[in-house]
């Protein structure tokens, strides 16, 4: 057996880092500004514990483009490095000075907001630069150092004459990366990654208007002055305590996050935990539409105020990805794949914490002002219903605030609904059934018919409502739901209807044969009913079960039931007491009978939106012929 050490030579690793360390070259700026921020925060910490003679002052980070010389400068007023420290922190790839600092100062520095982690960020500079210089002056009483490296493992280190404390990083931008010498491109990056970083970042100057002096004349030009252009807000709302913030502060912050969004958010949820994990943030409920797909990717994920991603999949439960806002946590491992992330214990805890906070907030809003909550229901129901379907815990909690509105605008909780129909129940063996409509317009005649019979009809019109109903029926088992145009309604009508049939048994049999000869049996199950003579002669209903399954297939979750395409199957209820049916029966010629049946069937289909294409064209043509 032979044992030995694998020989890793820097010459080989360096180009690898350069090429593959980060797939996104643009993040070099985020990394360098993070280091500048760390250097500033470290100094702040040292001044606070009296370990430096340096004055903290009002340090800034400045980004400067020198387009002619093809250089990009990142300048900070942080703690700087001595030559010895440059050797230690820069020349050792994968040695993190940030981690060392946190280790050294442990408890006192744990909330300092230090960003660095892996000791690799600095080298991302070589993804865009052919040469990098560091000119740095430590807060300690030692000469400044000047480090230069052209991307080969060789470097030079000499003394420099810099006198102010801090570090300047100079990137000699490579030929293939000149986009990073464009002001517009750098602005874009600063806004994307650094908008809420904790140290002010200066990029160029801007013109500010000043108030006109008292004695100024109308025609006098407004006075202006040139000021530093600070691109970030170092104290974003989510870093503050909820008690420090007013409703308006939350709204303003929303505007800061989404400057192009005109609609105000409906409400917000302030997240704030530090045990067993650290997480802060503000989530907003925007107005939702019924489209489940277009609204994702709006929550931004930060780590210590540095933007990381707007893809929070795996971290936030799926139903909440429809919300907007910010989550900031140093505890989310981001250097791992998404699938691993979902299995990570800490991430699971974060996800269930967020779910719980959202449920608690909804409950308290509901309790505090139910009327207002009802007004917002339409705009938020999709998230809540989706959450009830996908998260067991949320389903349980949502019982307290999930609403089921009637077509006339009365809102019930599940419990209220149950009590209401329970009170009406006459036979205690009867199933408790509530009728609902999914569309007020297309189901108008059914809604009216049910209301005329004294039934309450709910309006449940989200795209996922058939899934939700299924879940309510199978887990709570107290109420069954039946759509107004479903087959349950026939039973309800039949049950209540005491109307006596006008037809004799013989006539009934004859009618049944007539209808079945004309109406295709594979599409319609014909039922003869003696109803009020005013009720429609032909009524089409669809079996509740079949329709629901079909809808569930369309809105996803199909695999769960493993069904192929469901056949189109309808019930045709024929009112034997209607005048028209009497006429069908008494018409002498077969041909005319057939025509009457087909025309009536088409009218019934038309009222259900089932008549389309060629059949519709033929129907219209036939109808014109009839009235000619
Ligand atoms: P990390 O930030 O994860 O520690 P980096 O590769 O980004 O790793 O940086 C390595 C180390 O170099 C830092 O930890 C820090 O000690 C030092 N460093 C980098 N940039 C600066 C700077 N602008 N001012 C002071 N020290 C710096
Ligand atoms: Mg770093």
Task: Summarize the structure in words.
Residues 558-562 have low confidence and may be disordered. 38% of the residues lie in helices and 19% in strands. Strands 5-4-3-6-2-1-7-8 form an eight-stranded mixed sheet, covered by helices on one side. Strands 9-10-13-11-12 form a five-stranded mixed sheet, with helices on both faces. The protein has a three-stranded parallel sheet with strand order 17-16-18, with helices on both faces. Helix 9 packs antiparallel against helix 10 (392-398). The chain has helices at residues 10-20, 27-48, 83-90, 97-109, 183-193, 247-257, 338-343, 345-368, 370-390, 392-398, 414-424, 444-452, 465-475, 488-496, 505-518, 544-554, 579-586, 590-607, 613-627, and strands at residues 61-66, 71-76, 129-137, 144-149, 155-160, 166-173, 201-209, 224-230, 267-273, 279-285, 299-303, 306-309, 324-328, 404-405, 411-412, 433-437, 457-459, 480-483, 524-529, 538-541, 570-575. The longest helix is centred in the middle third of the chain and has 24 residues, at 345-368. It binds adenosine-5'-diphosphate (ADP) and magnesium ion. Residues 31, 35-36, 38-39, 76, 78, 80-81, 89-90, 96-98, 116-122, 167 line the site of adenosine-5'-diphosphate.
